[in-house]
Amino acid sequence: MNDKDWTDSQVDKASESFKAVTETVKNRLKEMLRGPLQERQLPIGELNKLATVLIADMAPEKAKAESDEIP
Amino acid sequence: MRIKSIELEWFRGAADKAQLALGAKSIVVYGINGSGKSSFVDAIEYAITDGRIKHLANEYSGRRLEKAVINTHKPDDRSTSLSIVFNDGSEFKEKIQKDGSHINSGLGTDSIRAWDYQRTVLRQDELARFITDRKGEKYSALLPLLGLEHLENLAENLRQLGKAIETTSRVSEIKYSLRSIDSKRIACFGKDADDAIQEKMIALHKNYCPESKETILSSKYIELDAAIKARIAASTSEQQQYIALKDIAASQLKEQIAEVREVNAKLAGAIEPLIAEKLEVLQATEKFIAKSEAGTDTACPACGRSISVDSFKEHIQSEQIRLREIISTFNSRRIAMSSISNTIHALKQQFKKSELAKWKTELLTKEGYKEKFDYLSSLNSETLRTSCTEAELKGLESKLLPLIEEAKQASSSAPPDAQELSTHKQMIEVATEITNAAEKSQQIEKIETLVAFIQFLEKLIREGIRKKSQSGIDDISSDIKEMWEMLHPGTAIENVRLSVPEESDKAIDIALRFYGVEQDSPRLTLSEGYRNSLGLCIFLAMAKRESGKDRPVFLDDVVVSLDRQHRGMIKEVIEKHLANRQVVILTHDREWYAELRQQLDEKDWKFQVLLPYETPNVGIRWAHKTTTFDDARAHLVDRPDSAGNDARKIMDVELAITAEQLQIRMPYLRGEKNERRMANDFLERLIADGKKCFEIKNGGHYEPYAEAITELETAKKLLGSWGNKASHSFDMIRPEAEKLINACESAYNRFKCASCGKQVWKAEDSGSGLVQCTCSGIRWRYGKA
């Protein structure tokens, strides 16, 4: 298995235990694992930028129903 | 990628152009100490590391090592340069200016800069480097060889990414602010769940806003809040007083003071040493930057070890990471102080309310309370947002908490309707905060899920690294073990291998079995000599992993601490494990050089000898011919006694090796004499045995090699008569010296076949007790002696 497939498979494996992680986050991480995260150890500034992107990617994928709608 | 030549000009020991011509072959270079051998290794290190030679970097060598790399006697009109030509025709050239700055050129630059110095060069003082490195350093050194550096980057980046997510999202600060809402919730609603609270608020809304058509909960809350405020405004002044006093009583100043104290305590332990360390880091940074171009290692003030530029950058990053945790605690403290500031501001407004004027007037008659109210008036709540010392906290405790307590006691006797109104007011305020808190809680949950996911992913990557590295580690271990056993056959130090400690990631160590007892480290039991020997095995095993890159390997005086028996096996190790690599061996051990020259195949190996160093103006000089007797001939004109003495010394060494190869039995001599036999001692036995054992092929049969014996006898005679003249009385004349050299050389060369050019012991015929050259032209029959 080449490295790209291997890192993708690790993300899929981790996802089995974390159903709440959005598809956007998973795909984004797969992209990061193939690219910037393996090239070199990143400085804090770059890590903070990636962190911000991932936090935004955790936004719900479907609009939630108004939870406080009175039935 | 092989080196064809290394040329130096006024670099280190070289004067005007000194060239090591490898011709893309492996080479053994002999030179006594100070003859300039290491100048060529220094050139390689200079090229690989872009101008940093570790062993030359010190406080006197200059910012760019200009005082160390440039020949001290370089004329002003000459330049310092080095050039490395590769077998593909590319070249690496470096011109070094007076101030040590250097300009490089040539297509070979990128190639040589990609070499790993630690896999290319091994110097005498670096032999035990890998052994004495820490586990993490060993791991880092091995990673590139295992092809897993990129996965290690992944794992480490994931670890830091998890922490960056926590910091960026300020999750700890959000959690902190939620705690204060939790305490209000419990005070107001007890253990009611969210549904129960909503039901209560909906019921309250129906009560206060019976005509309302609102369906959305948040809008209902807004309506209810407005309705309660209107009801309060319409109530009696007595009711309003009680409600205002209730608000004051609900203040959480006491809890907030405790929070700030708690966080202050956390910081107190970290701040002082952190500030001290940060100051030292700053000082070290300035010092390091000043010297960094010269490649000086600076001791890290935090951990004390010397570090390179790249390592220093990593170190700075780790310090920043540590700071993150402190910064997070700072933020928590900021929030706690901000809460106090808000509470003080609210208290000041509340005590100013007109409905409390009467109560306040009564309270002022009590002793000490004027001072307390004056204190509250004098407080600047905004100042408390940024600074809240212990003295200020004590002031708040002693002056304001009693005021709140008075308000609490006064409000406890409120009439039922006022109490109810006040309670409803608090309920709507807290319920609104709870709704907002729910959103924050969801946000925290998402962040924590994301962080846990990334941590789990890091764990999977690390497990993958362990598995993938195991086969590489096993391969290297297997080579180390085999090389060790070749160098030290039959010792009770066995099973030398790399090991991965179970309890840690990013760690590799060396284990072995010492006389049957497993050892976790060679530092526990091995002598310095053995450690150096093990270091050599590790270097060669790791260098072997780079066979695909076909880069040369330089071994600079690496056998110094090896005894003769073990040194002799290095050739076997190199031939077996680095057969297709270009190997450059430099040594000041004349015996070993002579052995290698006899044992290594001239098809693949060159041999060169450096003449003794005279002056920096003269620089590095090579012996003109590739035979060892050329050393002697170099002195014939000016020092014939020295020339003659050299010839004798050559024979002392070469005949010792010859006698060993031919298994000549020497009579035992007492004490040290047994170890210091001279040429004549060996010649005596070689001649005596040779008359029966030494044979030359003539046609289809063998006959005694009479010419060889005659020449050996001639050499013995001349050595006996003139050898002492050369070394003791120094009155040898040139013709005598020349004759002695020629006789010795001829006698010695008789052990080499004139047809195939190989020594008589080159191809051992193990079945019949004899050795012979590869074409069987000459032979030596052991059993005939």
N- and C-termini, Cα separation of chain A: 53 Å
User: Which two protein chains have the largest interface (Cβ within 8 Å of the partner's Cβ), and how many residues from each?
Assistant: A-B, 36 and 39 residues
- List the helices and strands of chain A in order: HHHH
Strand content of chain A: under 5%
Secondary-structure class of chain B: alpha+beta
Q: What structural class should be given to the helix and strand makeup of chain A?
A: mainly alpha
Say how many strands of chain A there are: 0
Tell me about the largest β-sheet of chain A. Answer: none
What is the count of DSSP helices of chain A, taking H or I runs of 4+ residues?
4
- Beta-strand portion of chain B reads 5-15%
Number of strands of chain B: 20
Helix content of chain A: 55-70%
Quick check: average pLDDT of chain A?
80
- Quaternary organization: heterodimer
Low-pLDDT runs of 5+ residues of chain A are 62-71
Write down the Rg of chain B: 43 Å
So what's the overall shape of chain B? elongated
Please report the number of helical segments of chain B. Answer: 27
Indicate the radius of gyration of chain A in whole angstroms. 16 Å
**Shape of chain A from CA axes?**
flat
The helix fraction of chain B, in percent, is 55-70%
Entry summary:
With 71 residues, chain A is mainly α. Helices cover 61% and strands 0% of the residues of chain A.
Structure characterization notes:
The complex is a heterodimer of chains A (71) and B (785). With 71 residues, chain A is mainly α. Chain A has four helices and no strands. Chain A has helices spanning 3-15, 23-34, 36-39, 44-57. In chain A, helix 1 (3-15) packs antiparallel against helix 2. The longest helix of chain A is centred in the C-terminal third of the chain and has 14 residues, at 44-57. Chain A is flat. Helices cover 57% and strands 11% of the residues of chain B. In chain B, the strands form five sheets. Chain B has a five-stranded antiparallel sheet with strand order 2-1-4-5-6. In chain B, a hairpin with an 8-residue loop joins strand 1 (3-9) and strand 2. In chain B, helix 10 (217-233) packs across helix 18 (416-487) and helix 12 (253-292) runs antiparallel to helix 17 (390-411). The radius of gyration of chain B is 43 Å and the shape is elongated. Chain B starts with a strand and ends with a strand.
